[in-house]
Amino acid sequence: MKLVAGSPFEWVARDIFYVGRDKAPDRLLSEKASQERNYDRLTIEIARATLSNGDNSIDIGANAGYILKALTRISPTGLHWAFEPIPRFVRHLRKNFPNVTVEQIALSDHTGIADFHFLPRDPACSSLLTRPEIESGR
After folding, report:
1. How far apart, in whole angstroms, are the C-alpha atoms of residue 59 and residue 46?
2. CA triplet 122, 127, 131: central angle to 5 degrees?
3. Cα(127)–Cα(61) distance, rounded to whole angstroms?
4. Which domains occur in the chain, in start order?
5. E strands of 39-100, at which residues?
6. What's the rounded Cα separation, in Å, for the pair 102 and 80?
7. Contact 46/54 with Cβ under 8 angstroms?
8. Following CA atoms 97, 90, 14, 129 in sequence, which dihedral angle do they give, to the nearest 10 degrees?
9. Helices then strands (H, E): number in the chain?
10. pLDDT in tens, 92-106
11. What is d(CA 79, CA 56) in angstroms, rounded to the nearest whole number?
């Protein structure tokens, strides 16, 4: 993903990545990719168990819309909101999810203004938090 971030091929590469990641055996995935896949699977499993058609959802840190896609399929007639601070992801979400309210903002459990640590080559690791162990050299 790091090689195509921000390129015209980014969205195709992301789709291929998610399909491959979802179908690959655990032994072929890095520990991080396996953890991310399990987190996403559990999130979607919880959504399926708790949402019905017509229910509403909120996707905080919607990124490229992988979880949002599942939420809108589970409840196609519900109201859905996506919050995402990275402009290229916001443009993608608005284009591909026209019935979702997409807000370009990072959310926190604190009121106020904060610095957003954007990692262009690894946007999923971008955060409001300062994390030297992740940001070092980026």
Report:
1. 13
2. 90
3. 10
4. 10-135 (3.40.50)
5. 57-60, 80-83
6. 9
7. no
8. -130
9. 5, 3
10. 999 999 999 999 999
11. 5
Helix-, strand-, coil-residue percentages of the chain, each rounded to 5: 45, 10, 45
Nearest CA-CA partner of 106 in 94, 122, 118, 95: 118
Contact call for residues 128 and 115 (beta carbons, < 8 A): yes
CA 74 – CA 83 distance, rounded (Å) = 19
Per the listing, tokens 């655990």 go with 26
What percentage of the chain carries pLDDT values higher than 70? 83
Element (H, E) at 101: strand 101-103
State pLDDT tens for residues 62-73.
Answer: 998 999 999 999
Query: How does 24-48 read in b/e, with b if 16+ C-beta sit within 10 Å?
Result: eeeeebeeeebeebeebeeebeebe
> Per-residue confidence at 42, pLDDT binned at 50, 70, 90?
very high
Quick one: DSSP state of residue 84?
Answer: -
One-letter amino acid of 22? D
* Averaged confidence pLDDT in the chain: 85
